[in-house]
Every structure is written in C-alpha cells, then in structure tokens.
Known about the structure:
With 472 residues, the chain is of the alpha+beta class. The protein has one domain (18-462): CATH 1.10.630.10. It has helices at 2-19, 32-41, 43-54, 72-79, 94-99, 109-119, 127-143, 154-171, 177-191, 200-203, 216-241, 249-255, 266-279, 282-297, 299-310, 318-322, 325-337, 369-373, 389-392, 413-430; strands at residues 58-60, 66-69, 86-87, 151-153, 346-348, 352-354, 357-359, 364-367, 431-435, 444-446, 449-451, 457-462. Strands 1-2-8-5-3 form a 5-stranded mixed sheet, with helices on both faces. It has a 3-stranded antiparallel sheet with strand order 4-12-9. The chain has a two-stranded antiparallel sheet with strand order 6-7. Strand 1 (58-60) and strand 2 form a beta hairpin. Helix 14 (282-297) crosses helix 15 (299-310). The longest helix has 26 residues, at 216-241. The termini are far apart.
Amino acid sequence: xxxxxxxxSQNRKRILKLEAxxxxxxxSRTPWILRAIQLSFRPLEYMETYAQRYGDPFxxxxxxxxxxxxxxxxxxxxxxxxxxxxxxxxxxxVIKDLLGADSLLLLNGERHQRQRRLLTPPFHGxxxxxxSQLICDVTKQVTAHWEIGEPFLVRSSMQEIxxxxxxxxxxxxxxxxxxxxxxxxxxxMLDSMSSPFSSILIFFSSLRRDWGPLSPWGRxxxxxxxxxxxxYAEIRERREQDDxxxxxxxxxxxxxxxEAGQPMTEQELHDELMTLLVAGHETTASALTWAxxxxxxxxEVQEKLRHELETLxxxxxxxxxxxxxxxxxxxxxxxxxxxxxxxVIRILKSPLEIMGxxxxxxxxxxxCIYLTHQREELYPEPKxxxxxxxxxxxxxxxxxxxxxxxxRRCIGAAFAQFEMKLVLATILSRFQLTLADSRPVKPVRRGxxxxxxxxxxxxxxxxxxxxxxxxx
Length: 472
C-alpha cells in the first residue's frame, strides 16, 4: 500500500508538472538601443527575422520583456481576456504629445468605455451614406489639379483627399481661413515626423527636447501649439453659439452625454478631435496609396476591378459601390499585405496564461498584425498581392485584423474602408493611371505607422468616355 501510495503521489506530481503553464523560452536579448534602430529603419525585417529565429511566440528584451504573438488562437485569448488585466501604458510617450492625454488611444477602464460610447455613433449606420457625396466631391476636386501626362506624388494627393474629407466631416468646415490653417498645419506636423530618422524620436524619449524652432522636436511642438489654438478656438466659438443642429462629428460630440448626463470637457473634446484628425486621414492616405500602386502594378487586378465597376453603370449608388466584392477584396488585400499599424500592445497588470504560457505583470503582450497576415497556412504565398483570397474564404477576426481587435478595435474601421472604396472608384472612373517607375516599391517607417514611400509617382491620362460611378 505504501508503495502504491508513493507511486500515485509521484504520478500526480508528474501530471501536475505536465499540466502546469509553460515558461516562455528566452528570445532575443539584443540591447534596446539596437532594437529601436532596427524598428525605426527596418521594422518588417526586424519582426520576420526574430519570428524565423525564435518561432511563435517569441520574446525580446530582458524579463518581463515584450512577447510577440501571431497565432490566431493566441490573439483570440488576448482579445477576449478580461480588459481589466491590461493597461495601455502610462500615456507619457509620443502619442500623448501628439494627441493629448485624454485621447481614446490612451484611456483605460471605464474612461475608455465612456469615450468609446460617445465617439462610436458618428461612424456607423446612416452617417456613412451622408459622407459618401463628400468623399466623391473632394476626390474630384483634388484630382482635377493633376496635370495630364505629368507625374504626380501619389501620397501627397491621397493625403490631401483624406485630410479634406476628415476636416469637413469632423468640423463641417469647407473653406475659409481656419480650414486652410488646420489643413496646412496638420500636414506640416505629420510630415515633420514622417521619415525613419524622425521616428527615432518615438523610441528615444531623451531626444524629445525643445532645442529651439529649428530642432525636430522644437518644430513639432510649435506646430502642435498652433493647431491647439485653432481647435480650442473652434470649440469655444461653437459653445458660445449654442447651436447643436449641425450634422458634423464635432457637433455630434458636443451634444453627446454619458449615462450621468455629462458632456465631454473642453480638454476631452480637443484630444478626441486631434485623434480623429490624425488617425482619420493619415492611415487611410497610406492605404489608398498602396491600393493605387497594387492596382496599377498588376494589370490583371486593374482589369478585373475596372470590369466590376463598369457593371454598375453610370450614377451608381455609393452603397452599391461599397458592396462590390472584388473592390472590397482589393481593399482587404491592401490592408493585409502591408497593414498600416504593425501591431497592438497590451501591458499586463495581473498574471495571465496565453496558449499554455504564464506571463507576469509588467509583460508587454504584442499581438502582431503584420506577422499574422504573413502566416503561410492562412495566406499561401503571403508576399503576393492576391485579392481573390478574400473571395475564396472568410477569415476570422483573429486571422485578419488590420484595425486591431477586441474592445479597442478602431472605431473608424467602417469609415476608412468606405472611404477607400469610393475614392478608388471615383479615380478609376475618371483616369487611367500608370506608374512613373516600374521598380518595386518597399514600405517605409512613417512615424508610428508603416507607409509607402512619399516619392511614389504616377502619371494620369483622362479617360475618353468618362463615367461617373457615383450618383451626383
């Protein structure tokens, strides 16, 4: 009996040991300064090299370190975990400097839920149809300045379109001094952080010092201050007018109240408006630039897309355009192959087990969008631009996640995809474009995001029989 009891005890210990959470094996211990330089200049190679070397998941840095995940099961476990076990961080980084401490991107817990409830309605339902004419009109206005037969900078044009759209959708501003000032200042501020060299400021807080107006950070701060003055002036004027009858997003936010009947404070309004202005046009401009590149780099994609648009005939309803399957697939594949945001970050406040691994508080969990979109078993030939893959199967929200996941998924996802489709349809109905250079285009770091290079050029030729796919 004693022998049997000892045997059972040993078995129980062995079973418990096997069932206990695994400790994640060490990954890269490359010094932070070297990793930051890699992330600034070659972010895709950084992630792919470590994934190939250490597998999935893999860690970087000293414990508790950061852990990258790309397996859909791991992403599902992270995104469906209790939000209270995570924090986004202290909010003392470059995002706070850019958008403000009350930005939705930096809030946690109940404050995040409150702001999300107030911000979500303008981006859903009937509001989408209301934006359709604005998107098409602005696209026509900007592209009307293209010189036929002369190369133009694709990203500059796309940024002009998306910035004008978001300014008009958010503020209801169409022309005038404040509209022009905001447009110019926002473009200048974002361009000041657009190069891989300037993105070093993101990773090294010690470099974020005001050494005068000619220094990178000093110039950024002065541009942001001017933008702040314009935003606060607009907020105060709207409140003094006490007219909340408008349909623009700013008016909707000023009239919104939480469950306690409290509206947003002036600071909250400012920070959320900055979030919408920056995130609402910068990322979509990059996505549109990529889409135009792929459409015109691959003749078979362009041919299929033009044929599908022609099936609608003239004066098609914008909502019908948004439902076109191949156009939708082109936009989806654009956001898959080079997602604008490479990953999302969750910092643990309490212990958590993910796919059998035990993680302690302070660990930075990184569901990696880019590596997930590159998984061979999900996307065969992942480096190839192939819209048909989205027509052949449905991908879960943990397999395809260009807008993040869980309760922090981008609230402007539907708006961004809707805008992409209408801008592309409007351009293709009016112009035949060709790439000015046949060399392959590689993504570059642009601030916090990944983007096509700013020097990508195309040449426009006006279509002889111009068709208008969107009702005017």
